[in-house]
Amino acid sequence: MNAVYLAQDPTLADFGRDPWWLVLIKIVFAFVFAVLATLLGVWFERRVVGYMQVRPGPNQVGPLGLLQTLADGLKMAFKEDILPRAADKVVFFFAPTISVICAVTALSVVPFGPMVSIFGHWTPLQVTDVSVAVLVLLACSSMGIYGIVLGGWASGSTYPLLGGLRSSAQMISYEVAMGLSIVAVFMTAGTMSTSGIVAAQGDATQLTLFGTDIPAPGWYAILLLPSFVIFFIATVGETNRAPFDLPEAESELVAGFMTEYSSLKFALFMLSEYVSMVTMSAVTTTLFLGGWRAPWPITLWEGANSGWWPMLWFFGKVIALVFVFVWLRGTLPRLRYDQFMRFGWKVLLPINLVWILVLSGLRSIEDWDTRGKLIAVGIPAGVLLLVTLLWPGRKPRPKVSVQEQVNNRPHGSFPLPPLDLQIPPSPRTRRVVAEREPANVTAGSESGEV
């Protein structure tokens, strides 16, 4: 890595020196990015899911249907704002804003690019950074769930309360797995600063492994593959996205915690969901995909990681992760709640604990390069984890006929509906059939039929 490349990496000393107007520009940029990402994210999801289902999706309002989300937002703004009689008015009003504010706040410590010159001031493309920025991300992720929980409780209705309780259990289950995945990151990077973690994922270097020189990748998605897989699964669970959208399961809870919301409050909840999806994609990019650094083979160009180009690579990675979110929604069915909780506590958490233990042991070996140890152990462990998660489970049970199910029912069970699922004929139908039967008998006897 040359001196020009190193000069682009911001450090903690580069923050806190900007004039107030430059800080304001960065804050406005982060907010505008969140709002535009929501508008385009909804359009992107509807178009991608439409393509998967062989239908056009939104294509009438604006070029390629780009203004459809804006039209839907205006429609929701002018709808009647209904306040349930049994609702806690103050909490019911502020709950959606909690989710939105926490999702947007997390973007303040996400690096969008390296050091650049803005109106003559040399500044990093990041609102701020602290030595414990990763904890800020975890705090924002945890606090965002409180908006959902409080919204469900303050509605004064059964289904929203159940959705809020599901969301709280979901947070407890998957926050632990997410935190352990981040532990592996700052164990390897040696810092909890987001800019420092991006700097630690530098370009590939030559690594001597078993007497052979090989290029060693720097992205933690490769070096810490088990942590990356578990972190992304936990991210999908934290953002209440399918197949983990149980707090708002339409088939069970009507709309879950959002059932009693309408107008702008409903729009704020929808905004928070899509902002959280984009924010967690940006966080995943920062922690595991090299942040704003260009992927290979773009890195062969010397100016790939300098100037304003890194913002393009950063947005490209975020869009790719958002596509995975949409892909999962259009592909996988929703899990049952017991399957969801079992997967978090009995699968992700034990695997993550074992991986952290293995990672600690690898770092204690002094006569072997750390990156080589991670490559030799992390990649096979990640592949084994993926195979384990994707491998079909227990053998399918043999199909049992309906008649066998009826015969094996315990004594005193509730009566079954007709096995042919046909509704019994109404009294009028039976009367009409009875009136026609004598005529049919007479016609048959005249023709000589017995």
From TrEMBL:
GO terms for molecular function: NADH dehydrogenase activity; oxidoreductase activity, acting on NAD(P)H, quinone or similar compound as acceptor; quinone binding. Its EC number is 7.1.1.-. Keywords: Cell membrane, Membrane, NAD, Oxidoreductase, Quinone, Translocase, Transmembrane, Transmembrane helix, Ubiquinone. It is an enzyme of class 7 (translocase). It comes from the Bacteria. It is found in: Cell membrane; Membrane. Its main location: membrane. Residues 401-450 are annotated as: Disordered. The chain crosses the membrane at residues 20-44, 90-112, 132-155, 176-198, 218-237, 266-288, 308-328, 340-362, 374-391. NDH-1 shuttles electrons from NADH, via FMN and iron-sulfur (Fe-S) centers, to quinones in the respiratory chain. The immediate electron acceptor for the enzyme in this species is believed to be ubiquinone. Couples the redox reaction to proton translocation (for every two electrons transferred, four hydrogen ions are translocated across the cytoplasmic membrane), and thus conserves the redox energy in a proton gradient. This subunit may bind ubiquinone. This is NADH-quinone oxidoreductase subunit H.
